[in-house]
Amino acid sequence: MAHRFTPEQKAFLKEHVKGRSNKELTEMFNNRFSLQLKVAHIQNYKGKNGLRSELLSGSERTYTDEQIAFLRENVKGRSLKELTEMFNARFGLNKSTDQISNTKNRYGLKSGITGGQFEKSHEPWNKGLKGICTGGKETQFKKGQRPLNYRPVGSERITDDYVMVKVADPRTWKMKHVVVWEKENGPVPKGYTVIFGDKNRRNFELNNLILVSREQLARLNQNHLIADDAELTKTGLIIADIYSKIGKRKKAAKSKGNR
């Protein structure tokens, strides 16, 4: 029996179709609206309404123009780990460092650093200007002297609306809310991230910083469970875990039924 899609369901599919397989989109749709549609239903709807996921071959997925622009803008001078954290926080995703690295390579994006130093192929701004200065000997850098734009460890800056803290020389920066959380709890476990419970990127109170797994973050975003209140978001996290368990049980039951 054909499913009649509501305006809300149509808007949901249009918003989430990019970069997702039919299977993933179907799971998201069913979790969001508590339905059990088959992949064929979603695939047919996409075909009839001209919705395209724009997936690359295999499991490699495309990125939106906005996401690629973000990577281009922020890649310089940042480690892969830092860039990945910024990307996931900006778009509410859970990309791994390997995925971001592959995307950088695919689009020819270079950070200009390797092992904390500029790559050999990276040309400094003053290449070819040896012996040229603008303010006499008294303004030239001497051995061991720091440049005028040097920022000491502990300095803060705003990057894409996130407060960043310099945690080490020469140029290692980290998101402030992660630094605050780790100071109290230790390093963020692999596969996890820290989010703002009330969406306020300037609220660094510990009770507003919530540790979530990548799977939990995906569920939170899929079901719009991150609220303007930290306590509501924590409740949303419980709901997200329930959705995950339901999805896993359905998948297990379907797999068992197909044997």
Could you explain the architecture of this structure?
A hairpin with a 2-residue loop joins β1 and β2. α2 crosses α3 and α8 packs across α9. Among the domains are: 1-61; 63-118. It has nine helices and seven strands. The protein has 259 residues and is an alpha+beta fold. Mean pLDDT is 80; it is low at 56-60, 121-126 and 129-139. It has a three-stranded antiparallel sheet. It is globular.
Q: What is the topological layout?
A:
Blueprint: H1 7-16, H2 22-33, H3 39-49, H4 65-74, H5 80-91, H6 97-106, E1 113-114, E2 117-118, E3 156-159, E4 162-168, E5 172-175, H7 176-185, E6 192-196, E7 209-213, H8 214-222, H9 230-257
Antiparallel strand pairs: 1-2, 3-4, 4-5, 6-7
Question: What pattern of helices and strands is seen along the backbone?
Answer: HHHHHHEEEEEHEEHH
What is the averaged pLDDT score? 80
Give the low-pLDDT segments. 56-60, 121-126, 129-139
With strands numbered from the N-terminus, the spatial order across the biggest sheet is 3-4-5
Give Rg in angstroms: 23 Å
End-to-end separation: 25 Å
What structural class is derived from the secondary structure elements? alpha+beta
Fraction in helix:
40-55%
Report the portion of residues in β strands: 5-15%
What is the count of helical runs?
9
Distinctive features:
alpha+beta, 259 residues, two-stranded antiparallel sheet, 43% helix
